[in-house]
Amino acid sequence: MRSIPTRSVLLRRVNWLVTFIILLLVAFALRVFRLDFQSLWYDEAFSVYLAQFNLADITARTAADIQPPLYYYLVAGWTRLAGRGEWALRFPSAFFGVLTVPLLWAIGRRLFGRGRPGQIASLAAASLAALSPLYVYYAQEARMYTLL
């Protein structure tokens, strides 16, 4: 029979949840801030070029490429909904960049457990993912890096 958590245990859980939500919001804000500031560069323009085709053509055109076609499928669908501006083209990368934060949180919990060490490790991993300038940089490119 499971015991009912005490008030202090519930407060700690709520604090961790609030911390996690704040971390996700910070990660999102960093990734969408000035998302359309720079113009597209060559590789991003290639993503735009491939996204204009239907799924069969994307598959055929990426068959000889080293990059799998899933990212191009997603961008093709997204651009049909949101348009082809820099912001819209880079948003899928930013979205998957934000999803890196809960992924690393979960990996930290799995590796270090649900106790205090696991909570600290998962918070550290998620914080590094949310705040890392390198992660933010690659999450703002219209390429498949964050999906990988």
Report on this structure.
Helix 1 (7-32) runs antiparallel to helix 5 (86-112) and helix 5 packs antiparallel against helix 6. The chain has helices spanning 7-32, 42-51, 55-62, 70-82, 86-112, 116-131, 133-139. Helices cover 72% and strands 0% of the residues. The protein has 148 residues and is mostly helical.
Quickly list its features.
148 residues, mainly alpha, elongated
Counted beta strands: 0
* Uncertain runs: none
Q: H/E order of the elements?
A: HHHHHHH
Shape: elongated
Largest sheet: none
What's this model, at a glance?
This protein has 148 residues and is an all-alpha fold. It has helices at 7-32, 42-51, 55-62, 70-82, 86-112, 116-131, 133-139. Helices cover 72% and strands 0% of the residues.
